[in-house]
Amino acid sequence: MLRNLEMKQETVKADVTERPPEIKPCSTVQPTCPEPEVKINDSCYKCEEGWEQHGGKCYYFSTKSSSWNKSRTECITKGGDLVKIDSSEEQILLQKKNGKFWIGLTDSAVEGRWLWVDGSPLNERLTFWFFTEPNNMPVQDPDGEDCAMMGHNGIMFWFDYSCKLTLRSICEKAAVAVCV
């Protein structure tokens, strides 16, 4: 039986090496070539110094604490905005950082209607709220809790928090394509 397998293996090897290649260059079949996927840390994308690049995005993790509104202004001044978390992968990436951070989510316009800083509504199927959140508790602020933060006592889920309190923040902007 072993001899049979060895003979079949030799036959396959010979068939593969003797057969002319039937693969056509991509230029002749261009319409069916898929777009290349953007790889994490793709060398064709760059971020400014102080920003961390992941895929086509740049992230800035502030070192000083500010209110949600001031944090947002600082992100905009840097050419970005508070982070909008679009996927589980992005949440996992961001939760590797220790600390409490403002993210770009608020219900300050209408209580219970959570919007991202770009004006898009929160996708209720893609949330990372801690199990009791959002709860709008007016403990620290009689106005309640209208801004979202991540990270609380080592728990890297989302919490609603008073926008007036000071935390660090995560800014986000598109990475610059440097490959032509």
Which CATH class of the domain at 65-169?
A: Alpha Beta
Q: For the report, how would you describe the main beta sheet?
A: 8 strands, mixed
CATH homology superfamily name of the domain at 65-169: Mannose-Binding Protein A, subunit A
Based on helices, strands and strand pairing, what is the structural class? alpha+beta
The rough form would be described as: globular
Distance between the termini: 56 Å
User: Total helix count?
Assistant: 3
Per CATH, the architecture of the domain at 65-169 is: Roll
| Total beta strand runs | 10
What does this structure look like?
By secondary structure, the chain is of the alpha+beta class. It has a domain at 65-169: Roll (Mannose-Binding Protein A, Chain A), CATH 3.10.100. Helix content is 19%, strand content 23%. The protein is built from three helices and ten strands. The chain has helices spanning 2-18, 68-77, 88-94; strands spanning 45-46, 52-54, 57-61, 81-82, 101-106, 115-116, 147-152, 155-161, 168-174, 176-177. The strands form two sheets. Strands 2, 3, 4, 5, 6, 7, 8 and 9 form an eight-stranded mixed beta sheet that branches. Strands 1-10 form a two-stranded antiparallel ribbon. The model is unreliable at 12-17 and 19-41 (pLDDT under 50).
